[in-house]
């Protein structure tokens, strides 16, 4: 008994016991109330509205958040407005509600749990697109790196967090190759988020650093998922293609039609209406 307690305390200090991940399924049949999908419980899948013929979307929240975060609600609603997907909302709050060090140190093992879930539910046999915000963007990458059956089709990282991640070490962060196509939206680059062009597609919202009407970095950071959700709900933004980050000031980027913007590789820019573009 004593040994077990000591072992648990040791594991807790290592952050290992915070890795419980909860999955909730939403679809057009159940837009409001998620259904629990339980790893290795086949009836939780078969009695849910999960349909293996539909495309899969998975949402992974950020540090300090949980499955009920506004990020999940807005993007889930946007996705279901757009098409009839299996939308799986991941809740990793057992780790994300601890301090940042613990949350970050658990990111790889949370990613591994998610990868095992993906393999078990065969999500990547059909089509799987993972959308992760903040620390959740790196967790999406860790899931993509650790799936065994197939490859995740697409990962969208919404302002992936910078703190504690070395951009030169692609194995320990969200990186290209974690999915067929990896795109990142940058909205608070150089502050909470990563600024560098590291992915198949890097989409910079306005200057990629600070957002109009935002007084705090958190506000600019959240802007990434807000713009993403609004796009899903049909809002159109000005989209541009750029050669270098230096062009984001608005003078160098060339007009790019919205339809093109989706899987355009390289650097592109999204200009929101609050910003006037003089170029
Ligand atoms: C498996 O899932 C079903 C349906 O959600 C549930 O009724 C059942 O209790 C679960 N079984 C276990 C062992 O958790
Ligand atoms: C985070 O929490 C752990 C365990 O409670 C503690 O050992 C560590 O010092 C904390 N780290 C920070 C940066 O607060
Ligand atoms: C990454 O590599 C570049 C080029 O080698 C170097 O200038 C930079 O300092 C490195 N950054 C980190 C965080 O190690």
Automatic annotation (TrEMBL):
Cellular component, GO, one term: extracellular space
Name of the protein in question: Lipase domain-containing protein
GO terms for MF: lipase activity
Domain Lipase: residue ranges: 24-219
Similarity comment: family membership: Belongs to the AB hydrolase superfamily. Lipase family.
Signal peptide: 1-19
One of the GO BP terms on file: lipid catabolic process
Keywords linked to the UniProt accession: Secreted, Signal
Subcellular location, record wording: Secreted
Keyword Signal: yes
InterPro entries associated with the record: AB_hydrolase_fold, Lipase, TAG_lipase
């Amino acid at each position: 008994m004593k040994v077990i307690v000591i072992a648990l305390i040791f594991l807790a200090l290592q952050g290992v016991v915070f890795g419980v991940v909860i999955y909730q399924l939403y679809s057009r049949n159940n837009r409001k109330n998620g259904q629990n999908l339980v790893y290795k419980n086949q009836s939780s899948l078969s009695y849910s509205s999960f349909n293996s013929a539909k495309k899969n979307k998975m949402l992974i929240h950020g540090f300090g958040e949980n499955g009920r975060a506004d990020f999940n609600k807005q993007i889930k609603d946007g996705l279901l407005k757009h098409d009839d997907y299996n939308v799986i909302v991941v809740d990793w709050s057992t780790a994300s509600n601890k301090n940042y060090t613990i949350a970050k140190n658990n990111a790889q093992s949370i990613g591994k749990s998610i990868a095992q879930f993906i393999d078990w539910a065969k999500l990547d046999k059909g089509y799987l697109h993972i959308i992760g915000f903040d620390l959740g963007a790196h967790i999406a990458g860790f899931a993509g790196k650790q799936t065994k059956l197939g490859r995740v089709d697409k990962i969208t990282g919404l302002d992936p967090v910078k703190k504690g991640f070395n951009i030169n070490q692609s194995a320990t962060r969200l990186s290209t190759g974690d999915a067929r196509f990896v795109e990142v939206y940058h909205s608070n680059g150089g502050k909470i988020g990563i600024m560098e062009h590291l992915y198949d597609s890097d989409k910079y919202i306005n200057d990629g650093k600070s957002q109009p009407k935002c007084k705090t970095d958190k506000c600019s950071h959240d802007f990434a998922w807000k713009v993403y959700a609004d796009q899903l709900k049909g809002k159109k933004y000005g989209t541009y293609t750029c050669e270098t980050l230096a062009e984001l000031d608005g003078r160098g980027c060339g007009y790019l039609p919205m339809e093109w913007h989706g899987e355009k590789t390289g650097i592109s820019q999204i200009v929101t209406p609050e910003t006037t573009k003089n170029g």
